């Protein structure tokens, strides 16, 4: 079984530019207030559909608030068959401080 890897924001930025899928596991209100541009909100309601339609071999970047909860989610997704899973160290808060121009608001990309 595949395991997830932790990744810093600079490396995650490059991974995202190379086409990685970004999923954000924060609550809907936090996601609406700001998320990495292009990220998909992932929760218990959307998880099964996401897994069923995802490319399991594509890089997958999991984002939470500060980089803690995303580790559990990344481990779970790796065990569901995703082969290249990353947890963003520092989470959305660190990303937002480093890349504020790459943050979307509302449901916008």
TrEMBL record:
Top EC class for this record: transferase
One MF term in the entry's GO annotations: thiosulfate-thioredoxin sulfurtransferase activity
Keyword Transferase in annotation: yes
The reaction(s) this protein catalyses: thiosulfate + hydrogen cyanide = thiocyanate + sulfite + 2 H(+); thiosulfate + [thioredoxin]-dithiol = [thioredoxin]-disulfide + hydrogen sulfide + sulfite + 2 H(+)
Broad class of the protein's primary localization: cytoplasm
Keywords of this entry: Cytoplasm, Transferase
Cellular component per GO, a single term: cytoplasm
SMART domains the UniProt entry points to: RHOD (SM00450)
Family: Belongs to the GlpE family.
NCBIfam families assigned to the protein according to its UniProt record, in alphabetical order: PRK00162.1 (NF001195)
Function summary: Transferase that catalyzes the transfer of sulfur from thiosulfate to thiophilic acceptors such as cyanide or dithiols. May function in a CysM-independent thiosulfate assimilation pathway by catalyzing the conversion of thiosulfate to sulfite, which can then be used for L-cysteine biosynthesis.
Protein name: Thiosulfate sulfurtransferase GlpE
The species this protein was found in: Geopseudomonas sagittaria
């Amino acid at each position: 079984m595949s395991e997830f890897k932790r990744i810093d924001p600079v490396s995650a930025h490059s991974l995202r530019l190379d086409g990685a899928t970004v999923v954000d596991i924060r609550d809907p209100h936090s996601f609406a207030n700001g998320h990495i541009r292009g990220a998909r909100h992932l929760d218990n309601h959307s998880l099964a559909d996401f897994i069923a339609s995802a490319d399991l071999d594509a890089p997958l970047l999991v984002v939470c608030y500060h980089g803690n909860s995303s580790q559990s989610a990344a481990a779970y997704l790796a065990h569901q068959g995703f082969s290249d899973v990353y947890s963003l160290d520092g989470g959305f808060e660190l990303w937002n401080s480093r890349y504020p121009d790459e943050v979307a608001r509302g449901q916008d990309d």
